[in-house]
């Protein structure tokens, strides 16, 4: 072979130019990511401002904080299953767009009532409840819509990029919150999140990639029947079932921890809203690292590594990084230590979250995408209001530190559930066909 006969490496110039349809998909995927990322940016502001309003402005007690957290987390217990069936029946992008519009209008009530002097814990609870219900439907629609834009390896890559982007914007939102609260005040800072809802809606309105028509339903099919079918599918699925149960165990423990953590750092460590916002921003910095590293580490490497072992390692990290927080005291040094713990915790959580979402989407039949997402939301997040209420009751019974210790130990339950499941042996992303055969074999 002569020099001129040697194969020429592919270059950007020799690759085929993307078609018009491919360009449209890339543009729309960018709009989709940017629209949701803007929502995360605004939501990070509210995640700091709303509890700050309750703790600093309205002087909420530990039990009142538990109630506020509970009502914000109760709607999935009621709406999630119906949300999934509705999403599988209708155009997902349309539901996502209108959910953003309605959410922005609801959240606007908080700064308006604060400016008029009528803000109360009741108002925060009512708006938190309604907003969570609307967000549940739009979130289910948004996550279920992604496989319409990306498939196969592109889906895993899209979830990884989305996780990194969301973590980055969440970090930016937390730091933005500290600046807005310092300059504008806590209630006015929420206006940034109100604006983010409407910007997100505009981004979704510009997407042009055709969305597949929802599959026709059999004559006489009802929402309840379709919900039952979705529950049966998820219950029999060898991959989706353990992932959902593991997520549920972890979510219950972490909800209790998050309620107690806020009370702990504000009441006992004497943190200001600005310090709280800065340290909470560390969570998102860890999320960026976890999302970027998680996709690479999830690639099969030999026989001992892949997506299953990665998720197990990420879950094992959770209780370990909470232990130093229980030993913390006031002062800058401990703020740095807690910030580092929060960073590590969310690096593991994001690596696990983006990969388990890709696994569930890859293994699920298209006709069940909305329902598998909503069933996961219902089982995982539905009971969280009980965990939030239980955290408040536990503080009253045994005190704050012992309650936090129990919550920290309980975070290991997600790891235990996944360790005892077939998912621990999973090396590469599954396919719907392979998962379907496993479901049939299990019946």
Secondary-structure blueprint:
Elements: H1 20-57, H2 62-73, H3 75-89, H4 92-107, H5 109-116, H6 121-145, H7 153-184, H8 186-189, H9 191-205, H10 223-236, H11 240-268, H12 273-298, H13 307-326, H14 332-363, H15 369-381, H16 384-398, H17 400-410, H18 413-419, H19 432-442
Can you describe this structure?
The protein is mainly α and 443 residues long. The chain has a single domain (24-208, 221-442), classed as Growth Hormone, Chain: A (Up-down Bundle). It is 77% helix and 0% strand. It contains 19 helices and no strands. Helix 3 (75-89) runs parallel beside helix 6 (121-145) and helix 7 (153-184) packs antiparallel against helix 12 (273-298). The N and C termini lie far apart (58 Å).
């Amino acid at each position: 072979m002569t020099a001129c006969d040697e194969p020429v490496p592919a270059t950007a110039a020799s690759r085929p130019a993307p078609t018009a349809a491919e360009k449209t998909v890339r543009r729309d995927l960018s709009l989709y990511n940017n629209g949701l990322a803007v929502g995360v940016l605004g939501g990070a502001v509210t995640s700091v401002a709303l509890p700050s309003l309750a703790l600093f402005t309205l002087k909420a007690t530990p039990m009142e904080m538990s109630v506020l957290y509970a009502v914000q987390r109760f709607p999935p217990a009621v709406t999630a299953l119906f949300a999934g069936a509705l999403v599988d029946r209708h155009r997902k992008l349309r539901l996502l767009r209108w959910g953003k519009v309605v959410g922005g209008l609801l959240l606007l009530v908080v700064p308006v009532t604060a400016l008029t002097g009528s803000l109360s814990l009741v108002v925060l609870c009512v708006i938190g409840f309604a907003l969570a219900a609307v967000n549940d439907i739009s979130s289910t629609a948004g996550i279920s819509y992604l496989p319409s834009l990306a498939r196969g390896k592109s889906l895993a890559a899209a979830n990884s990029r989305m996780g990194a982007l969301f973590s980055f914007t969440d970090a930016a939102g937390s730091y933005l919150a500290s600046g807005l609260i310092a300059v504008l005040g806590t209630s006015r800072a929420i206006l940034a999140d109100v604006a983010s809802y409407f910007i997100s809606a505009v981004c979704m309105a510009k997407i042009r990639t055709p969305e597949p028509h929802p599959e026709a339903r059999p004559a006489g099919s009802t929402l309840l029947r379709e919900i039952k079918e979705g529950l049966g599918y998820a219950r029999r699925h060898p991959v989706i079932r353990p992932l959902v149960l593991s997520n549920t165990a972890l979510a219950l423990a972490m909800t209790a921890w998050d309620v107690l953590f806020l009370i702990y750092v504000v009441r006992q460590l004497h943190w200001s809203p600005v310090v709280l916002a800065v340290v909470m921003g560390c969570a998102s910095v860890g999320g960026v690292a976890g999302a970027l590293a998680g996709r690479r580490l999830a690639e099969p490497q030999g026989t001992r590594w892949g997506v299953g072992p990665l998720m197990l390692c990420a879950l094992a990290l959770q209780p370990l990084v909470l232990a130093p927080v229980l030993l913390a005291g006031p002062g800058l040094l401990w703020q740095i230590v807690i910030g580092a713990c929060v960073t590590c915790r969310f690096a593991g959580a994001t690596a696990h979250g983006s990969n388990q979402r890709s696994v569930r989407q890859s293994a699920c039949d298209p006709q069940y995408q909305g329902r598998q997402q909503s069933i996961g939301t219902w089982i995982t997040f539905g009971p969280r209001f009980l965990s939030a209420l239980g955290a408040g009751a536990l503080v009253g019974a045994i005190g704050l530190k012992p309650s936090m210790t129990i919550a920290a130990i309980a975070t290991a339950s997600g790891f235990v559930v996944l360790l005892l499941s077939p998912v621990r042996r999973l090396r590469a992303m599954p396919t719907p066909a392979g998962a379907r055969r496993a479901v049939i074999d299990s019946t």
